[in-house]
Every structure is written in structure tokens, then in C-alpha cells.
Amino acid sequence: MRLNQVVPVPQLIEELWGDRPPRRPTAALHTYICHLRRALSFGARPGGPSMLVRHQSPGYVLALDPDQVDAHRFERLVSQARRDMAAQDHRVAQDRLSAALALWRGAPYLELVDYAPMAEESARLEQARLAAVELHAEASLALGENDAVVARLLPEAQRHPMRECLIAYLMTGLYRLGRQADALQLFERTRAHLAEELGVDAGAELQRVHAAILRQELPFGDRPATRVDVTAGEDLADATALPQAEPPTGGGHKDMVTHGARTARSALSHERAEPGARAAVPHTAGVPHSDAVGHSAGVPHAMTSLPFVGRTYELTVLGAWADAALSGEGGLAAVTGQSGIGKTQLTVEVTRGAREAGHEVIGVSCPGEDGPAYGVWARILRQLSHTRPEAFRTVSARYSGLLGGLLSDVPSDAAEDVQPPLQAPFLVEDAVCVILVALARQKPFLLVLDDLQSADCSSLNLLHLLTCRLPEVPLGVLVASADPGPASESTPQTALDHLLTSARTLILRLGGLSEQAVATLVATQVDADVDAEATLALHKRSGGSPCALRRLL
């Protein structure tokens, strides 16, 4: 914090020991300095002691090139990017800001924030990071990279719901992707949050963006949306596939694909598309394309599932969330939607990407309400005990008596027969959380829980406790859950609702696939050209549900 500045000896003593100094504080300080110099000896010249920490009356100074400190490099890059933005050099500014933000690895000085000056510096740097995120969004919007802006800002908006500049950029990105309703809903949530927390209305700039969206006056940037044809085997960057309350209906923007949208990962690498099979997408919903082929479609392939398409936006968002979670910004992400809409398949793709990046993934499916208490966590602990036997044995040893059956070495398919002690549920839940957090601090990992709506109430309570401890822990928890139904005495709706409505949870509700995604799936399964009218009918009949579409095919 005080690079190349002399810090007086009395101040160092005060900062180290406060009002309880040792009997000989100056001598103790000298000992500390010797240890520090030894630790920093990598900077010494050959044959001489380290001069990184040297005495200079009336105290000591850390003599270091500012470019050797990540916080200084970050602020220098951001300052240069501001000058680039002023000169309208958006690409260079974006590159500098990407490099600056890549230096971050969680909250700075995290272990030292009990000391007020460290807490203040940590807060200052976090505000500087948020300003850089906003500047990066401004540069990306100027370059027409609207999908990337939405993917980056959505998790930030979850964590900082009153950051109006950030919300304005996110609203702009959503609007440019044709997601006007989402942008307007975001504004209403932000305004309500500001009123509830601070008793104020949204600022003038945020209201200006809101009004421009209502009047359809917000510019779309340098790269307009363009129509494309869907070809089998291509991974369309379907930026308009979004969570919606109901399956998509005719009209609107669902034919629009933003030019240059990035794909998070190859989604169709495992398709069985025939060479040249293709389906034309109508330019306007409901109007057949002029090149549509009139003959009937061939017989679909035999199939038990369909290739993964049409979720590029969601996959990008969850990929960014997983990267952040496994870098020390732990959190809970939930994929919800009606049965058969593709929740499990989306989590599988996220899991594949995490494993390809070298991360450990622990995946389980919730056994159902009639299963044993904490049955989900028994499976998770057993998997970790097999993948990290030594580390697991060390961190769980002190809890072996309390957790009982949860730690017993039995096959995972016998988990239903294991009943942990229930006389102290909070102690059980706390112990499991301590074990998971300790293992994550040693090596980050991702937990994936499918069919969360079927989990027992005890497992949901434990998950809620774990989410309270996730911030600043390199552990991500990704869950898939059907939309909660009406509450009843036989279902743990209260616990599930609490998880799915928490401000700490990133929620992605899957709606039906777009017409373009349905056309892609049809093209991969049918050995003939399919006219646009038939594709439109399949989309309407299935409501964009992959499961319903598979049955129709």
C-alpha cells in the first residue's frame, strides 16, 4: 500500500500489535524485518542481501518497481485505456482493460481487512475494478460485441444491483440483442432496489436509457443484426435464445442473430449431420423462404437425445460465472425451467468446459424426497474421498464421529441405506461446509446438482448454509431445478424458493429454443431438406422444448 514510502517504526509497531505490543517491540520488529528480507531474497543481487526492504530513517521502505505490483499495473493499464477511449481507439482500450481485469484473483488484502486502512484500500481497489468493468463494457458496446457485454455484466449486476452505470450498459446490451423485455425488467428491479435500500429513484442517465428503449431510440452500434441461413453442423451464436416465462410465439426478433457473437464452446461437435443437409430460416416468422424445397422430409435418425444448440448466451454466461467462481468468487448458479426444456444438457456442457479447462467437477443427481437426510451430500463426500483421499482424510478426521454414515466408505449406490446422526443437524451441516470449503481452498472444484427440486429438505438447508460461505471461496455450485410448483406440506418448497430467490444466486430460466435452433436440430436429424413452413410448424408444436421436439421427430 505504501510502495517506496518510508513507514516510521512507531507506525509499524502500532499496525502489528495495536495496544498489546510485546515487551521489546523494536527488537521484535527487527526480527520480523529479517524474516521478511529472507522471504524476499529472490530480488537480491548475487552475493548480497536483499535491498527490497531497507532501513531509511525514521523507519523502513519497500523499494520496488511499481510494475512489479499487480495493483499498480492494473491502475496504469486502466489509465491508458481511458486515454484510448478519449481518442476513440476502442479496440486498443478493450485489449488494455482485458489485460487489467485478468490480473484480478478475488478480493485484495482479504485476510487483512480487519485493519481499517487495509479494508479501505481493498474497497478502493474494488471500486476501481468495477469502473474498469464498466469501461470495458463501453468499449465492447462501441465495437458491437453486445453478447460479450451481457455475459460479463450479468454476474456483476447480481453482485452489485445498485451500480447504475453498470446496469445501464447491461440494459443497452440486452436491448441490442433484441431482449427489450429483459432490459425493461432489469430497470424495474434496479429502481425498486434503490427505493427499498436507499429511498431514492434511479439516476438521470439510467432513466434516459430506459426512456430510449421504450421509444425504440437506442442505437444498435456499429454491427447491425443480420439474417443468416442455418446449416447443419454449424454452432449458431444464437444470441436471442433467452429465458422467458412462456414458449416463444410468432413475430418479434427471434430471427435475429447478432453478427460476431462468440460461441462459448463448440456445441455441435458430436452431431451426426449428413453432408449438405440444411434448412432455410424464414426472414420473417411465418413467411416461407423463397428457396424452400417442396418435397417431403426424410425419416429422422433413431435418437434418444438431440445435439446441444441454441443456448450460446446461457453457456457464455455460465462459463464466465464458473471461471469467476473457480478463481475465488464462489457462488451459486441455478438453471430453471419446465421439464424437458434442456436444463440437464446445459449443465453437462458447462461441466464439459470446466473439465476441459482442468478443473475438478463433482456431479450428482438428487435422489428424491423419500431418500435419506443429506443423501445428496453423502454422494458428494464419497466422490471427494475417492478423488482426493489424503486431503479428504485430513480435513474430515475431526468430524468422523459427528458425521457418521456420511463419511463411511460404502458404494455410492448404497447411499440410501446410510442415515447420519440427526440429533444436531446444524452441526452436521456446518461440518460438511467446513470440509468442502477447506478442500476448495486447497484446489478449486465445481459442484453440479441436478434435479434439485427432488432433494430432501435437510440437503436444501445444507446447500443454503454453504451458499452463505461461498463468497471468496474458489468453489462453484451449479444446480438444475424444475420451476417450483405450488407449496404443499409434502414438498420442500420453502427451502427451494429461498435458494432460488436469494440475491446471491445467479438465475437462468430457460425458455423454449428459438426457431433457428429448432431448424438446426431438424437439419441434423432429417436426411433431406426441410422447408421453412414445416420447421415453423415443428417449432410451434414443440414450443421450443428439445424433449417435445425429439418426440415429434
By DSSP (H or I, 4+ residues per run), the number of helices equals: 20
| Helix residue percentage | 40-55%
Largest sheet: 5 strands, parallel
Structural class: alpha/beta
Gyration radius (Cα, Å) is 27 Å
Instruction: State the order of secondary-structure elements, H for helix, E for strand.
Output: EHHEEHHHHHHHEEHEHEHHHHEHEHEHHH
Principal-axis shape: globular
Which spans of ≥5 residues are poorly predicted at pLDDT below 50?
Answer: 221-301, 409-422
**Whole-number average pLDDT?**
77
Spatial strand sequence of the major β-sheet: 7-8-9-6-10
Strand tally: 10
Percent of sequence in beta strands:
5-15%
N/C terminus separation: 64 Å
Domain OmpR/PhoB-type: 1-64
InterPro entries: AAA+_ATPase, AAA_16, AfsR-DnrI-RedD_regulator, BTAD, OmpR/PhoB-type_DNA-bd, P-loop_NTPase, Sig_transdc_resp-reg_C-effctor, TPR-like_helical_dom_sf
Family: Belongs to the AfsR/DnrI/RedD regulatory family.
DNA-binding region: 1-64
